[in-house]
Sequence to fold (678 residues):
Amino acid sequence: MASRGRQIRRNISAAFQIAASGIAPRETVIPPQPHPADHAAWVDRRTGKLRPTLPDAWASRYEYPAAPARIGVLMHVFYTDLVPELCEQLRNIPVPFDLIVTNASGEELDLRLDDVPLAGHVAVLPVANHGRDILPMVEVVNAGLLDPYELVLKVHTKKSTWREEHAELSGTGDDWRSSLYGTVLGSTDNVQTVLGAFAEDPSVGIVTADEDIVGTEFWGGDLERTRALMRRLQLSVSEHDLRFASGSVYWIRGFLLQGLRAFAMDAEDFEPEAGQVDGTTAHAVERALGLVTLEAGYRIAGRRTIEAPADDSWRHFELGADRTPRARVIPFYLPQFHTFPENDQWWGPGFTEWSNVTAARPIFEGHNQPLLPSELGFYDLSVEGVRDRQYDLARSAGIEGFMYYYYWFSGKKLMDLPVERLHAADGDQPFCLMWANENWSRRWDGSESSILIAQDYDHVPAEQFIEDVMHLLLDPRYIRVEGKPLVAVYKIAQLPDFPKTVQRWRERAVEEGLPGLHIATVDVGREMDGIDGALSDYGIDAFLEFAPHNRRWTTVDLEKLDRFDPRFEGHVLSYPEMAVTSELVLREPVEEERYPGVMVNFDNTARRQWRPDLWYGSNPYTFRRWLNSAISAVADREPEHRIVFVNAWNEWAESAVLEPSQRFGRTFLLAVKDALLR
Fold:
């Protein structure tokens, strides 16, 4: 509304100027006003300022559950006379659940839950009558209140009196409500069937009434609004592709709602309430949710398409049911976030990776730069406690541990403080090492030009590397495969006579009482001196995939990006294309000696500003689909070998970050949890 007010003032001012000049006025044309969720307006109002997790009105009313259920119910109330009906229906849920109620009625609610014994943690949160049931849902998502839940039932007090006069839809609003409530609740047997479908079929993302799954005939006035929202995720929308759950009452995978945090929506995105039945941001969000459901690799299922489970699979959602990770997911870990003398000398006193990260500037409209941390802040890895918080976050998503980049230059070690502190400390924090055996240069690309410190295998032979890390390999927390410590080398073919070196490493491990080593090398491809041929010929156990290395790179037409800075001289590539082509490969049998890898993103603008390589289109939903494919590709292996690598945990200057950020919150981490814990 503020932008519209400014436009009106400009028109009035122009009219006064014309009148004062004595010139006959022409007809004043007011240009069409952008909708509240307009992309350019959203970009312009974004800031890097942290906001409180909970709105002020909720801070005194909400207590985080000590032991959350696996199912959450999100109920929105506007019509209080329908609350008893909904509460009665909740008795049909056969497993414990938590209840979050957003109350836009302005009245105190009597929920009458005495006869609903499985309702656990209950919170009633006041909200404005703004954005229908959708903005309150977004506010709950943004506050992270849905993060604990694997499955969510979304319901609201629905009357839809306009439906009686709708030209294409039959029945009354009461009929529609009864159908929706009966579909998602209705009876205990019905809910057990729905829960069984989610437990047994990993492709099911949403379950709702069959007749309420609609497509392109229901774009209405929402196409451009939906396009604007999807641009926030750097995803395009075709007017010929749409499938969504109308009515906004459904069972849904928790991540599909949790991921809405990535849209960075707030109250300014939504129109004031005026009885609209179409053409609002709330309607666009309904459609966008359908699109991201498919983008994440899920499908929308009608209730009648689901058959009753053969057993008690619905009990999967009971408290205490097993949630064993489907694979051993290991992200790469950058230890660059503390000062040390060499960096002070090369870049200036006090330099850490944050110095690059905070200096980045956006190159086009909607560019996610600078990408800044949120809940962990600009941490210093020399400070105790930071690593503990990182591991707590990782464990919450089912991640096994981190692969630390290890920087060893002819016996000289850099940035080994974090892993040495880990080794010296108590606690269960699994880890392993990748020797990042490339030169350090001022260009941050391991090139032969502008070298700061180089690998010199003539000065100190590579065999010596194993001696300097042996104490870490002997640590009982070190990540192992069949009892053997997992050691990776970035570019192993650059080591002189590396088969001989590897053999000596193995001998030394046995001499120290280990059963051997499990040695992997990064699949960097031929153009970067990668191994060509069978690994066994070189004494190597496994290829480690490290996207974007050795992946298909597809350029993006720069004409499609708005307000593009003319100083740009780098490359823009397509993240969705890389994800899709990688998925196609993963559908075929993957060799046992290959560990799949996915990337959160890659964008080194923070290091190279106007000459970066950046991937456009990274978002939590596409990332989830790619990661799920990688996990599924190793599902038939023995558990020890179900390893998947992620680039990365905290490569902030390359935007490869699972850690919570101001832009995306925890959504990438929640994507890992959704794909990994079932």
